[in-house]
Each structure stands twice: as structure tokens, then as C-alpha cells.
Amino acid sequence: MEQNTETTSYRIRRIRVTGGFLDGLDFSFKDGLNCVIGARGTGKTTLLEFIRYALDLVSSEPNARKHFDCFINSNLAGGRVELFVTTLNGTDYIISRTAGEEPMLLNGDGSPSGQPYHKSLFRLDIFSQNEVEATAGNTASQLTLIEAFERDALDSLEADVSAAKRELEGNAEQLDIAWARVAELTDAVAALPSVEEKLKSFVARNEDESSEVARENTLRSMRDREKIYADRLKEVYFEYARKAKTLVGFFREGVGGLSANEFADSPNYGLLKEMQDIFSKCSEDVDALLERIGQCVNASWAQYEPKYKALFAAHQAQDVRFTQLAEKNEANKQVLAERMKLERDHNRLKEQERELNEKRAEYQRLREEQDARLKKLSTLLDSQFRVRQGIINRINGKLMPRIRVSLTQFGDISAYQTLIAEGIRKQMNQYNPPAKKVAEKIPPAELVGYIREGNEAAVQEAAGLTPAQAKAVVVAFRGDEKALVQLQTAKLLDLPVIELNDNGTYKSTERLSTGQKCNAILPILLLDSDRPLIIDQPEDNLDNGCIHDTIVASIQAVKGRRQLVFATHNPNIPVLGDAEAMLVMKSDGSNGSVQKCGNVDDCKKEIIDLLEGGKEAFEQRMTRYKYRNAK
User: Fold this and answer.
1) 189-218 confidence digits (pLDDT tens)
2) What's the pLDDT score for residue 333?
3) 413 and 492 Cβ atoms separated by less than 8 Å
4) Whole-number Cα distances in Å, 87 to 8, 81, 275
5) d(CA 124, CA 531)
6) Could you give the count of Cα atoms lying within 13 Å of 516 in the half-sphere of its Cβ?
7) In the prediction, which pLDDT does 73 show?
């Protein structure tokens, strides 16, 4: 593996294509400005998109992905792209990708790296035709553009944010279960005061009953509680044994009928057989441990069961004595039967009350965990905003007053609004208008607080809703912890605003013409960075004056530190940008190929022929504009 300790940026060193429309293409890129020129249909766009394909930088949007896959299938046609790159730390790799396969990471000498390829290995910014303009019209794309300047730091924070949200989702599921049980037990235990009052009345009415009967009544009530206790222990034995038994054979069953013997003819059979043996040994060891656990539980149950039966027998004998005593007192037989029922109900309800207190404590603990996790999530989101704001400060420092960028934390509420609308759509027909008002007026944490309190009036006042609309919002979400967590963790994106100074007036991108949009976005793309920048026809929608002021000036400012690769039809870019490398493409209609390589001077004739309309046209313009005699 080659090392270049002086490297301070990512670099594409070379591209090699085997098969497809560009079969046999082999081009080495230079640091600084690389320009790809040629007539239309010679493969300029194909070359750049092959770089995107090799690095797997395709949009995740389904339609865009489908379109790109069709493009690659048509132009690569089962072939292979090899991209020779140098990472930020100076390590050389070859990223090799065959049509229809995943990228393969090789060492710089072509030997296997033993590592899977990951997009974070090599950072690059690439924009196809019209993508610059599309970025100007989409705030999410603008945020992605801004984030690219601190991609590693923001990726790390995003991973932490995702983990925090997963923890909150798990917490919400536990809260839902605990809350449902609390509600169920609360309803059941509501009868306890009535039962206790009836028991007191029995005692008051039967104050003259014999001390023996009173004592036996107390013992019989205690026996009910003893049985509840013993049965709960029994349930734990059976449940634990059941769970341990279900895990036996889990490893073995997980692989089904797969066997390394299927690969006996493969050169990798020995390695696969060793892997299978290690797996099988683990499976056997785990099953043995589970068997020991089962034996331990069974041995304990063997000791517990006689005691359980003995307790049952003792209860039975004591119940017989109580029954005999009750039968002697014929006058109070009916009273004792009623009291026995009340005692049983009382014991059952007291057990439920104990469980209710446990579940309430569990629910409170889970709520405290939720609050702590929400605080952690808030801290992470604040950190994301600070990183983004730092990037924007750097952009403004470079580009103001011509271009101004600002950022509003959580300014994009569309995902939050959608969640509210989806929640209340079952409650009312016209759900979008109230959802929009709530999303705009009430922050997620505040809304969740109102919902938990059942405070319809607060929702109505804060969002300017009707009573019916406010009720629909509260009813839709109350008691659904998972939905409440989704509200609190809704992806509220920080909202960027990119503005262009138009004769002293700052205008946001949605108010700009197509050319102005490109004027606003391109200078940001062309800022100094450690990532190569690839753009297909950056001159689209710009006049030559803008190309000089916007593109050429930026190229001259950054190309000493940043690698640039442009496919272009405009001569000002390679000539005034003083391109270090030119790739001139040609095509016979079936295949694109390299016509010539070199620097600007080497390819002067091709630049004049392809970009200036030929020598005669170029000279006529010079004569008409009187440049030839200009002093």
C-alpha cells in the first residue's frame, strides 16, 4: 500500500474503463483543473457518471436511482470501472466496480485490501447537468451542500442522533406497555375502597363473634395471600424454563440446512469449513450451557414442588377446619360465606394494588429516562446546528457581500406537520389546515406536554384552533407514547437561506432567475475544500461575463489546493482557468474514446475547433472585436 504523507486532500489519480461505451479509456488526472471536452455524444457525461458509479454516490430517491441504473446498464454494459484514488491521509486505493456489483476496495497496487468499501473512505462533490440549479430550488439539497464542508463531523453527530432516537423509540414501547397496565390496574383497584368498607361493616356487625372464629377468619385471609405468593414463584419457574428451552438449538436452526460441504470444490472450502467448525462449537457450547440452566431450574423446582404441595395440603386441612367451625355456627353461615368472598376479593385487589404501585414506579422511571434521553438528543441537535453555523460563518466570510447565507435552527417543520396531520386525519376531514397551524405555533415538546395534560384549551389558544380542532389533536395522540415520541423527535431540519446580492438587494434563491440561481450556488461549490469537485457543464445558464466572474475567478482561487474536474463546452473555463489536464473525447457512434490528452497548450487546436467554432470563426471574432490590434 502506497503512502503519500504530504497529501492534504482527497485526489482522483486515474480512471480506467473496461467494456461498455468507453471501453479502453485510461486517463490520469492532475491536481488542479481537469477539463473534459468533446462534441456532444462523445462520452463526457458518461465519464463523470462512471466516477459517481464507482464511488456509489447515487441518490437514494427511487426515481433518480432507477434512471441512473438504466444509464449505467446502457453505457457500462457489463463492463468495469476502476478508480485510482488517494485518501485524505495519503493512502492509495483502487475502487473497482463491475456493472451490477458492489464496489470493491483494492490496495494501491491492485492487491486485495481485505476491507469493504464505504462511502466515507473517499469524499467527493459531484454535480450532473442541471443539478446546480436543482440545488438552488431545494432547501434540503442546500443543507447537504453546506454540510459537505464538515461531512465527517456531521456524519458522526447524525449517527449519535439516530442512536438517541432509537433509544427513545424503545423507551416509548416500554412506556406504552407500562401505561396500558397502569390503566388496567387502576380500573381494577378502583373497587378496593368499596370492598374494604364492606369488610369493616362485617367486623362492626360481628363484634360479638368468638375469638376463635375471628382468628380463623384472619388466617384464612392470610392463606389467600400465601397462595398468591406461592403461585407467582411457580409461574417464574415455568416461564424461565420455557424461555431457556426455546433458545436451545437457536444457533443450529438459524442456518437451516446450510453446510460448508456445498463448497467442497471451492478453493475457499478449507476456510469455510473452519468457520463452520467454530460456529458449530459455539452452538454446542451454548446449548450445553442452556441445558445446564434447564437442569438448574429443574433441580430447584424438584425441591420447590414438594414444599408447594405441602403448602397446598396445609391450606386444605386448615380450610376444612375453618369450614367445620363455620358449620357449627349455623346462624352466621351466610355471613361467613359473604365475608370469605370479600376477603378473597380484598386479597386479589391488594395484590393488584401492589403491582399497580410497581408499574407506576416503573412508568415514572421510564419517563425520567425519556426526559434524560430527550435532553441528550437536544444537546446533539444543538451541536449539529453549531457545526452548520460555523460552516456558514466561513462561507459568509469568503463570499459576502456578493452572497449571504443564513440558517434557522429547526426552521423546516414539514416532517413535524406531516406527523400531526397523519395523527388527526381520523378525527376530522379537514386536517391539513389545523396541522399547519399547530406545527407553526407550538414546538414539539410543548405540544406533547399539552397532550399529556389533556389541555385542549392550551392547544386551542396557542395554535388559534377551534375547540373541535384542539380536541382532535389531543385525542389523536393522548396515551400513545410511541406517537408522542415521534412528535418529539420529528426531523426538524435546520433551514438554510442562500441569498444573492442583486444590485444592493439580497434575494433568496426562490426569487432568482435560473442564471442567478447558478450564480448563487456555484461560488459555494467552488470554495476551498479537501474534496475533489466534479461538475458537468458548470457554465449552463450563465453568460460569459458570469462565467469569468463566477467560475474562472473561483477556479483560480482554489485550484492550487483543490482538484477540479469539469466537462465543458465553454473555452473560457479551460483557457482562463489554465487547465493542468485536458481530455479530448471523440466517438464513432458506437464507442467513445480519447482523441487527445495534455495541458491547455497541447490541446490548443482542439479547444479552438470544439469550443471556439474553429480557427476561422475565432479569427473573425478577433478581427470584428479588433482584439488583434488592441494595445
Assistant:
1) 999 999 888 878 766 665 555 566 667 777
2) 64
3) yes
4) 9, 18, 33
5) 5
6) 16
7) 93
Secondary structure letter of residue 120 according to DSSP: G
State residue 2's pLDDT score: 43
| Residue 549 CA, distance from chain mean position | 40
Contact between residue 377 and residue 487 where contact means Cβ atoms under 8 Å apart: no
Q: How many residues does the chain have?
A: 631
**CB of 15 within 8 A of CB of 597?**
no
Q: CB-based burial of residue 313 (10 Å sphere; 0-12 exposed, 13-18 middle, 19+ buried)?
A: exposed
Residue 330: what pLDDT?
58
Task: Tell me phi and psi for residue 262, to 5 degrees.
Answer: -65, -20
Asked whether the beta carbons of 426 and 476 are under 8 A apart, the reply is: yes
The 8-class DSSP code of residue 430 comes to -
For position 630, what pLDDT does the model report?
A: 46
With DSSP H G I counted as helix, E B as strand and the rest as coil, what are the percentages for the chain, rounded to 5?
60, 15, 25
Number of H helices, E strands in the chain: 22, 15
Pairwise CA distance, residues 120 & 140, whole Å: 20
Whole-number Å distance between alpha carbons of 455 and 472: 12
CB environment 327-341: b (16+ within 10 A), e (fewer)? eeeeeeeeebeebbe
| Distance of alpha carbon 381 from alpha carbon 157, whole angstroms | 8
Distance in Å from the first CA to the final CA of the chain: 55
Q: What is the DSSP letter of 3?
A: B
The answer to whether the beta carbons of residues 20 and 590 sit under 8 Å apart is no
Q: Is 515 exposed, middle or buried (0-12, 13-18, 19+ CB in 10 A)?
A: middle
* Cα separation, 251 vs 329, whole angstroms: 65
How far, in Å, CA of 305 to CA of 284, rounded?
Answer: 31
Residue 568: count of CB within 10 angstroms of its CB: 23
pLDDT tens-digit readout, 249-299 = 888 887 877 888 899 999 999 999 999 999 999 999 999 999 899 899 999
Count of CB atoms situated within 10 Å of the CB of 627: 9
pLDDT for 159-188, tens place per residue?
Answer: 999 999 999 999 999 998 998 999 999 999
The pLDDT value recorded for residue 4 is 44
Q: Which residues contact 96 (CB under 8 A, 6 or more apart)?
A: 54, 80, 81, 82, 83, 103, 104, 106
The CA distance from 251 to 238, in Å, is: 23
**406: which DSSP letter?**
E
Q: Are 21 and 77 in contact (CB under 8 A)?
A: yes
Provide the pairing of β-strand 125-127 with 533-536: parallel
The sign one gets for the Cα dihedral 57, 59, 64, 66 is positive
The 10 Å Cβ neighbour count of residue 153 is 15
This prediction has a pTM of 0.82
Residue corresponding to grid cell 408499574: 359
> How many angstroms separate the CA atoms of 174 and 354, rounded?
19
> Which cell numbers in the block locate residue 553?
475567478
User: For the chain, which residues score pLDDT lower than 50?
Assistant: 1-5, 630-631
- Cβ atoms of 391 and 147 within 8 Å: the answer is yes
Task: Give 470: exposed, middle or buried? Use CB within 10 Å, 0-12, 13-18, 19+.
Answer: buried
CB burial of 124-147 (b: ≥16 within 10 Å; e: otherwise) equals bbbbbeebbbebbeebebbbebbb
